[in-house]
Design goal:
The complex is a heterodimer of chains A (80) and B (232).
Chain A lengths: L1 E9 L6 H12 L11 E8 L5 H15 L5 E7 L1
Chain B lengths: L1 E6 L6 H10 L3 E6 L10 E4 L19 H11 L4 E4 L1 H8 L6 E3 L7 E9 L15 E8 L3 E3 L2 H9 L3 E5 L16 E5 L5 E4 L18 H17 L1
The chains are: A alpha+beta (80), B alpha/beta (232).
């Protein structure tokens, strides 16, 4: 069994009001050097067998079809 | 005319959508998310609510429900479909309409009556309105800010596929939720698939809504259907 991590983030040009709300709370807490926060999602996907090229290609398709909406989000896949 | 109203787990406004269909003197036909069956209806409404609890993204799970496997090809073949609020989100997730609905700019869930301007009165769902007509209908959504890339927005503008806009002093500041270019609703290239965030089905009767301005969506499709029947 292997674990594959899919990180999904809003595209840079898409407004992220949640990240902005976190940023403003960060400033209220006194972390003055924090200049930006973007909020995303992390999926931990467990698969049978090794995380080889075939498996990762399938995870990429899964990410494009379901985990992320490519209209507004981008994703990255890492094995962990 | 028989108009299907789909109920997903978490749909809220299927009852009001069916009532609006009856007000337009058509027959509402209940459709169930788990059935691969459109029951031979002449049009379909995807109602508002929180299908599948809005898990993952609004509409993302509903898109893969059995009824959608039937609806997507039928819509592409010309079946009139109206997606309201969560229904609009489902239509975007299913790629029947371009773009996506994102979290409101102010993060707050917005529940209030909004003024809309009819930008396209040539769709099957808006043919009974006049271009530029103002409608007062409720908006109630947390992820209602329409977003798309600039090329898509330009294309929607150029081809007249923006159906309704939030009315205001100018189009970019009018949207209470931060929707791009004040877009409240759009249609596909044929004008048969329409999605919008505000709720015309809650504005069909002054007794229960802010106006009866929304009834036109439902009477329009009935009229279009009757006209097509007369021609055919």
């Amino acid at each position: 069994m292997a674990r594959v991590i899919v990180d999904v983030m809003l595209k840079p040009e898409i407004h992220d009001p949640q990240g902005e709300a976190v940023l403003s709370a960060t400033r209220r807490l006194g972390f003055a050097n924090v200049t930006g926060v973007r909020q995303g999602k992390r999926f931990e996907v467990e698969i049978e067998g090794p995380a080889d090229g075939v498996a990762l290609a399938a995870i990429e398709e899964l990410s494009r079809e379901l985990l992320a909406n490519p209209v507004i989000e981008e994703f990255s896949i890492t094995t962990g | 005319m028989r108009i299907g109203v789909v109920t997903f787990p978490g749909s809220l406004d299927d009852t009001d959508a069916a009532r609006a269909v009856r007000f337009a003197e058509a027959e509402p036909v209940p459709l169930w998310h788990a059935d691969r069956d459109l029951r031979g209806v002449d049009a379909v409404i995807l109602p508002g609510g929180f299908s599948y609890g809005d898990y993952l993204r609004c509409g993302a799970i509903a898109r893969f429900s059995p009824v959608m496997a039937e609806l997507v090809p039928a819509a592409k073949a010309g079946l009139p479909v109206l997606g309201i609020c969560n229904g609009f989100q489902i239509l975007c997730e299913a790629h029947l309409l371009p773009g996506a609905l994102t979290r409101n700019a102010g993060l707050r869930f917005i529940t209030r009556d909004v003024r809309l301007t009819v930008a396209n009165a040539d769709t099957v769902w808006t043919g009974g309105y006049q271009p530029g007509q103002q409608l007062l209908v409720p908006l109630k959504s947390g992820e209602g800010a329409y977003a798309a890339d600039e090329a898509t927005l330009d294309e929607l503008d150029r081809t007249g596929r923006v159906v309704v806009r939030y009315a205001g002093p100018d189009r970019d500041s009018a949207a209470p939720n931060g929707a791009a270019r004040g877009i409240a609703g759009i249609c596909d290239g044929a004008g048969t698939v329409v999605g919008l965030m505000p709720h015309p089905e809650h504005a069909i009767d002054p007794l229960t809504g802010p106006s009866a301005d929304g009834l036109g969506f439902f009477t329009s499709v009935v009229r279009a259907f009757a006209g097509a029947g007369a021609l055919g």
